[in-house]
Amino acid sequence: MTKYIMGSPLFAPDVYGPYEPLRKFTNKDIDKASSMLANESGQKLSPHRIYTSLLFKRQRKKPKTSYSLEWSNLPHKTFDRNYVTTESIIIETKDTFQEWQSYFLELCVHFESWYATCMLESEHIEKHLLNWYVVKPSGIRVESHRGVGNELYEGIPGVYWGNYFGPFLVNWFGREALMRLPCFSMQWLDTGGVFFTTAEFPDQWNTLSSLAYQKDIKAHLGKEYFFDIHTVKQMLEQLHAIPEAIKPEQLQTNRKVPDYPFEVVKPTHKVNFEEMEKNFKSLGYFVIQRNDNNLILENGKGDRVNITNIPSPTIEFIPNL
Questions:
Q1: Spatial distance between the Cα atoms of 61 and 192, rounded to a whole number of angstroms
Q2: Are 1 and 37 in contact (CB under 8 A)?
Q3: What angle do CA 123, 129, 130 make, to 5 degrees?
Q4: How far does CA 61 lie from the centroid of its chain?
Q5: Collapsed DSSP state (helix, strand, coil) of residue 98
Q6: Residue 226 carries which DSSP code?
Q7: How far apart are CA 65 and CA 60, in angstroms?
Q8: Does residue 21 have a cis peptide bond before it, meaning omega lies within 30 degrees of 0?
Q9: pLDDT at 222
Q10: How would you class 283 by CB atoms within 10 Å of its CB: exposed for 0-12, middle for 13-18, buried for 19 or more?
Q11: Cα separation of 270 and 74, whole Å?
């Protein structure tokens, strides 16, 4: 794996590691780099662990380019995120860009990826970076800010410029369904996985035609399998703030997860209904039903919030349309 990553004259990384300052990637450091890339001490087959390997490429000379890769040997995180940022010159130079795409797909093969994405940083920010307000038990509101909807074991993060589904997801959705996928381009790999795009180049991800492909792909495969930040934002606009015990992702209540062949550890904690009641009362809600496992609140406009502890803590916002 290290030899392949270092073998590309255009895309071999300059630095590696999960923390600043990043280590310089030189022949002298190959053994250390290989150990870091494989993350032998951290990556164990256990859904309880979150260790990942991280690699950066920075090149200031032409063609200017930068990218980052993050992966893990855990089945529910294996190479589930890959953020790519490049200067426009590498995108405009078609031959060089095709080399990058080939390099990316070979990484998917080497990592035996379950799932991978290829996108500009601007696309990732638009689809996963979220600002919202958290209401404390005291009623004080605090602004919160982080990336959301990224975890593969909670559902497929989305549809982007470039998307790779490994053999498991191909079998899950069905090869025939994927062959009929309404996308810009499609390429099948020897792994049994498929790579598909929504435009010719990554900087075209937000064009009308690319956005239409993204919408049609979700509709074709089932939009309930994909994280949708717009749904979450709409719910947050209606609620204005949410208790700190609730994750924004929980506001997309119809999201489904494929039947992965590994155990995903569900939260064992229960929602504190007294705290939830106090939080939502400060937002203008009142209780209309409460028992050991369920709390239903309503506001003056008729909007309802349904909070349950079975089978795991969930929240459902039902606007009065």
A1: 37
A2: yes
A3: 140
A4: 31
A5: helix
A6: B
A7: 7
A8: yes
A9: 95
A10: middle
A11: 26
